[in-house]
Amino acid sequence: MQLDFHYYATYCAAFIAGYSHAESLDICYCAQFVDCCTRSFLSEIKAPLQAATTQSQTELLDVNTDIIGLQDITRIWASFHFLPGDLYAPVKALFKNYKNKYRLICAPDGDLVARTVELAKGKDLHATGVAMHVLADTWAHRNFAGTPSMVINNTDSYFFEIMPDGSQRKIKFGHNPGAADDIENGKYTNTVYNVSETTIMNLGHGRAGHLPDYSFIRYKYMPAWDNYRECLKDNPAEYYNAFCQMVYAMRYLRGEEETFETGRYDEDNVAQWESRIKEILSTRQTDSRADWKAFGGELSGEEIPDFDETRYVEEYRNAPKGKHYLTFLGKFIIAALAQKSMVTNQIYKSGNKLAGMSVDYNKKGFGGMKDFKRLVKHIEGK
What we know:
The chain is α+β, with helices and mostly antiparallel strands.
């Protein structure tokens, strides 16, 4: 997903869920900031590099794809953008390494979605924003994994768009990263075909370009992980599910719902705006931020400021020594570390080493990692 959904649509979902205008802004800012918090950014403000929630193209081009580098990539992308749907999925006739990769395939309504939402319960709104980004991406990024793998993430030339009138049009892919996608003529950019199992060209949905991030598109293709059997992806329907699930999740986080259960979407509380939301989702455009911003303004009667990646930088830089965690970015960093720690721990506990080693803090204690005391207190709700 892109800024239009993570920022403006998340604002709308938060307001419908009962949060105030100011609270909704904090939530949607953090939801979008997950796509901005690179190590380069953290280095500039002298923040913990472990809190990176994404990697820029430049960082990915420079990364080593040895075991350590691949584990680092997986911790970031599986924790925040390609949350695994089932870490214990039955997979037959595969080498263990490939079996572990299959178990990192992203899907909505998995156990880790529930854990992600529950992790944000009782925490700052920053944790809510992080959780909403992760939840939403499970719908857009389903069928791809947050680890480099040709076996899992590759696609072939069989790629067709289902047009609004029901007809089909073959999608043409090019590889110029500077070229804009041409939805009128069905021309899109994707990563270059590469047979290497560990190249970043085969990370996530790179081989499908930005198609998973566009709410309007319906397409069918043959994913490598499913033995190249035809798969239909209906983004307008799945994005609507994502929106309704965010409303339900945030009502739970506010205390309006007693429990959070996967497979539940708050269609009742969204019903009066259903046609408007589906119209925005189905409009054929690569960027729907203007439509979502207008809808959000109608909901709250307030102006929604444009997203500014640098908005809270000076507050963090000027914080007194030892008090950075009290700033806006400091609270986001704590929430990000908690999410990454939880997902990495669950992957490791499943017997899968692709995200590296993990310490169960509740059983093993701090292990000399004093910098994480604040994180542990956050997880424990203290």
